[in-house]
């Protein structure tokens, strides 16, 4: 298979169709004035203005040109997704071969971006899943995600008597936290996460928005949440998020 200037040998895992291959490289999220570009710019602009680093520059850097062809290691293993997890199935993904695939989520780039030394970034791109087409599903769609890592100082600097607080402990995993995190750290990270995302959706959809948080599960975050907004009298899920598994950061 020839794709984006590279050749991939086919094997028993190869299942990308010509129709899907024709979509790769369109990069609608980077086409000026396209609706997806407009949403991306709106989110980017919000983060640039709201979150400023110590040098007066935007805290979050943006990556919107990363290749949609990733390794299975990037898409699954680097995110702690078990070998037998249902999300790896050939029926759900577009594989070029056993080792390469079209990314199923922008999270496929998290490990590489963190490993390069980044601690606050947004990743944007086209993602691919073998979905049946209906009014809310299409095999090519787009995601934008953010990652923020905190040092002890960044998390506790504005807290009264915060100098004695710690990020880590040797404890037990509960429904509310990982075994290595202190309850104080998790509460602050969770508060920050929900506040940042509530501000973002209010910026996109306008004031007077009804928002609710639902507990959920992702292999690479704990605790994990989905945000739902009230749209035309019904609750609609708009995003998933959570506290990144420390094992992923440590690796």
Automatic annotation (TrEMBL):
Keyword Protein biosynthesis belongs to the record: yes
Database matches in Gene3D superfamilies: Bira Bifunctional Protein, Domain 2
Ranges where the Phenylalanyl-tRNA synthetase domain occurs: 26-147, 192-249
GO molecular function, one term: phenylalanine-tRNA ligase activity
Keywords: Aminoacyl-tRNA synthetase, ATP-binding, Ligase, Nucleotide-binding, Protein biosynthesis
InterPro entries the UniProt entry points to: aa-tRNA-synth_II/BPL/LPL, Phenylalanyl-tRNA_Synthase
Pfam family, one: tRNA-synt_2d
Listed name of the protein: Phenylalanyl-tRNA synthetase domain-containing protein
